Amino acid sequence: MEDFDGEESGEDRVASFFGVGDERVKNKKKREIEQPRYDWDGGDFGVYMKEKQRKLHDQFAAQFKPSDPVVKEGNQSQDATRSSTFMHGVHLHVSGWTQPSRETLRELIIKAGGEYHTYYSTKSVTHFVATSLSHARMKSLNEGPKIFIVNPDWVVDSIQQQRRLPEAKYRINLGTDSRQHTLAFHTSTLQSPTKEKNKADAFPEANEDEVDVQDELIVDDTNNDAAIKLDAMRRSGKLLSTSENVNFVKDFFAQSRLHFIGSFRARYEQLMENVAERLGMKSGNALLQDSVTCQEQGEHMFVERIVLHIDMDAFFASCAISVDPSLRGHPVVVCHSSSTSSHAVTSRGEISAANYEARSYGIRAGMFLKTALQMCPHVKSVPYDFELYEKVATKVITLLHAFARLVEVRSVDEAYIDLTGQDTWPVRGKEMKEVKPLKTKSDVDEFCRELRNRIEAETGCTASIGIGSNKLAARLATKKAKPNGIYRILPDETESFVAQLKIRDLPGIGYRTCEKLETELRVKTTEQLRKLSKTALQNVFGANAGVLIYECVRGRSNEKVIPLAARKSISATVGWGVRFGAGDTEYNKAVRFVVSLAEEVADRARQADAVGSRVSVELLKAKSNAGEPYKLLGQGSCDRIRSSASILFAHNQESLRNELTKVCER
DNA sequence: ATCCTCCCCTAC
DNA sequence: TAAGGTAGGGGAGGAT
Ligand SMILES: Nc1ccn([C@H]2C[C@H](O)[C@@H](COP(=O)(O)OP(=O)(O)OP(=O)(O)O)O2)c(=O)n1
Ligand SMILES: [Mg+2]
Ligand SMILES: [Mg+2]
């Protein structure tokens, strides 16, 4: 659908869609309607056409059979008390699946006087523990400063004998997967930039945990019959030409708010260094390990839990208002376009955040500015200020860690805190001088009140807090608390609280799940959902997901509050303003574009001290019946073409990309 | 049973 | 003008 104004025509389409009998005819006659990203971008009115999955992958399947050597990712902790010191000076990092588990190894090493590191870093880690390792990973580990690379038995045996055994006898298997297929090796030459890039990708400096380097590319491939696309290209002209601007990828990321919130986690480790410093702790790792230890200790406490969910109110908008008080009290939205420009009334700039004044007119994140202006002609828009949001987030996260031992930062503007077992506050930083008790309900209330006050005092932005007996309850409570409030759901109230919500309000149940519940299980309300048996849900959603929904609608959740761990994958995607046509020139542009994205991934991997064990690429091709994208220069309705392969040698990557770019040419 | 890959879905 | 990214959970279905 064209845009938000298209509600009526959307309905129109629904009607004619259902009026046609044969699906193939429908697909021919009706333009494809994209899956909505937001409930109000027309999605609830439009039809999502579940079209038969046309797997193009059989086209490549004959040529690649990717496989993954193994994986690593580790996040651990520091807890047990030291009982000996023979491992003193050993800085251990565990990567991937191990026997015994990462948690056990962590405990063992700490008890023996060593130190544990959640993140791998060439600077601090002396011993790298893994069960198996790809050649590429091994090579990169060996390129850095000398560290010991050992299997888990080294730790176990050393502990057993109470001495540090020689590392040499505990070599790691250079693992191969019997299912690994040899990639078709194409000698046909690639553009040289592609080659350079491959190298960069395959051998970053050091190795992090299980890191799956992902290189995604979205190509909207204009086909012969896609006159509409050509038209869009023409209209966008040179100004928007995606592939002509050599800095397109960088520019795009610099402006993208979804990139900003999506890449928060990539910046988190660095951010925690800053937080640790503000709290007078020696390092971000020390802070993190303390939080992990607390989590592990609390795990064995089978008492009623006290979980808080803290979420900033209208975050981006609040930040803007905090530095420009003249905006306070007005309806404010954050987006690229300006509400005072003469073009504002036609603006398809997407709103990122709307303050509560704006929301009272029905304005929501994800809407176009022009729609917001229809709802409220005097709404003020402000541009993005990502640095400001990051600064505010850092202050908030610092406060959270000063107040509580166990913190899980979930995004740039929200976090969970588990207070179970914490009996005083604050726990870190200067204010430790005056320690208060945290035992009764009213102590918790006081804790929350003070936390909210401090956040507002230090940032000029307000936060809301939900209190519950699990993460789900706390999260639902926050929603109720907003804006600028606090709400507690008592343990025995949780179930009845959920009963008064709409299914769509339940976290984890999104647009598609709601749709399935309605069409396949005839369920529209939480009350009806509650009547479904576990089995019925499992039949539709699978064994695990079925139980999750079943528990969720009863207000139950086992999810633990856990400090943010290292990422398991790194990727870069651009799905805006990308158009490639047929022919050699366009093909070469597409290849250059893939390369620039791959370089972006390589940069990010290097920054994270990560090496990939797998590469994947994804292309989007406009469906032949796709209409104009709903969003200006957006991706519209596309087929996805993807492939991945494990990386043992750099040239695999090269051949992979070679193949993939060929596919994109098609 | 468990481990893959490929894919869908969700949330900020 | 406008910047629809990112990462994780999990299922289906095939291979081991
Ligand atoms: N579709 C969205 C949703 C969110 N965000 C950004 C802007 C938000 O300010 C920030 C935090 O998201 P929240 O869901 O927490 O929304 P707000 O903080 O804006 O409002 P609320 O008071 O409901 O938390 O993420 C965005 O850019 N696009
Ligand atoms: Mg918020
Ligand atoms: Mg939030």
Automatic annotation (TrEMBL):
Keywords: DNA synthesis. Signal peptide: none annotated. Gene3D superfamilies: 3.30.70.270, 3.40.1170.60, 5' to 3' exonuclease, C-terminal subdomain, 6.10.250.1490, BRCT domain, DNA polymerase, Y-family, little finger domain. GO terms for molecular function: damaged DNA binding; deoxycytidyl transferase activity; DNA-directed DNA polymerase activity. CDD domains: BRCT_Rev1. SUPFAM superfamilies: BRCT domain, DNA/RNA polymerases. GO terms for biological process: DNA repair; error-free translesion synthesis; error-prone translesion synthesis. The keyword DNA-binding does not apply. InterPro entries: BRCT_dom, BRCT_dom_sf, DNA/RNA_pol_sf, DNA_pol_Y-fam_lit_finger_sf, IMS_HHH_1, Rev_trsase/Diguanyl_cyclase, UmuC. This is DNA repair protein REV1. It comes from Timspurckia oligopyrenoides.
